[in-house]
Input
Amino acid sequence: METLISAVLGDIVSRAISIMVEKCREQTTAEEDLQRLQQLLLRISAVVEEAGARCVTNRGMIRQVSMMIIQMFRGYYLLDSFKSTQKKTNDEEVSGSSFAQSKFNPAKRFRRLSSYTQIDSIVVGRGSTKELKQFILVLESMVADLKEFSIFLMSYPRMYRQPYGSYLILNKCMFGRQMEREEAISFLLQDEPLGGGNLGVLPIVGPELIGKSTLVEHVCDDERVRKHFPLILRYIGSDLKDETAITFRDHCLIKHQNIASTEERALVVIELLGDVDEGAWKRLLQTSERCMARGSKIIITSRSEKIVSVGTTEAIKLSCLSKEAYWYFFKMLVFGSTDPEEHPKLTSIAMELALEMCGSFIFAYVAATLLRENPSARFWCRVLRQAREYTKKNNLVFGEYHEDRMSRYAWSTAETLRGSENHELFLIHHSHQNGPASRGEVPRITAVELVSGTWSAMPRGKFEVLSWRSLIPPYYNYVYSWEFVQNKNTKT
Output
């Protein structure tokens, strides 16, 4: 009996010691967890960068890289949240209210960061490390599978790429659409099955100013696509309703032509501003199938979901970047090569501001230009207040990509910089985009100059403003029609 009792007690003690040892191993500090998170993010970033440098054609691998990118953005978002919170003092305020009351305060706010391991949410806070540990487990599981993935990745040929330094200039490369680009290129280079239709059609759908033209331009500029298609045509129109086969060809622009090639394949890019007319599309498709060589492809883009039905493959649907990806993008624009960790208060203000910009790329470029010109917390808080006022005046909802066809208020220049009680505002009307060929017609005055009040002679009435000049293909100039107004009721 005594032997049995002794054995039971020994087993209990042994288990208790094992549990205590295990708990001691798990009791890492928040700083150690953040270091581990940073190490995991570096490993995942390296694999993502390597995948972007190779001609990956397998759709499964492309989707796996997309998942890595999503988790990478979420990880950096979480990392910046923790670090900016840890280094801020308790008496710091953002936008006239204490950081503890801010809607972004990581100690008070739940962030929905759904992942493939059923994590419901991540709570960011000084004393809350359990969720951080859970997210680290997600990344560790992902990193554990990278060895096999890397072996498959190395089997794909490397693409020609520019020196690494050029990739550090974020406003000169396409952001956040690399996997969509590879998916489109994979479709274009794929042979159509025997017995099927002669033409493959890829629809690309997304709201205005989301990057459809930019994505298509980068696809068409790819060396693999240009070698595969000796002729690339581009058509821009409303709905194809009034087009015949002859007029359609006359209205197409030649983007690329290799006269020396013996191949007859062609790629036709159709960019529609409205819905596709079904009757006109059927007539155009029938004519194209008779006239175009086998292996030719069509890319059709539109804001309307109706074009999804005309595709012979799954449509690529572009939407706003996630909050985490948008923050990564905005952070690179604002801080550049500077480490945001060195400026925790500015980082916190910038994260607040990123939430106010509704995923707009143009808004991000304009705001980043303003912030870089005056790296003081007081000025950044002022810009944040104006962004919130802008959001309030225009009834925008977080995460909603606003339509630019409706009139809306711009920022007040008097309140942004001068601190004046003069409530003069600008009303923004319609917008349009010009290609590089119309460079001489680009307005001289820019949105940054109006918002900052640095333009020498403040205009009156209606006038055009250059909101942003893109530095990446297709090098559009985004022009808005503004109107100077006197705001009599600033409460509305």
The CA atoms of residues 449 and 455 lie 5 Å apart. The mean pLDDT is 78.
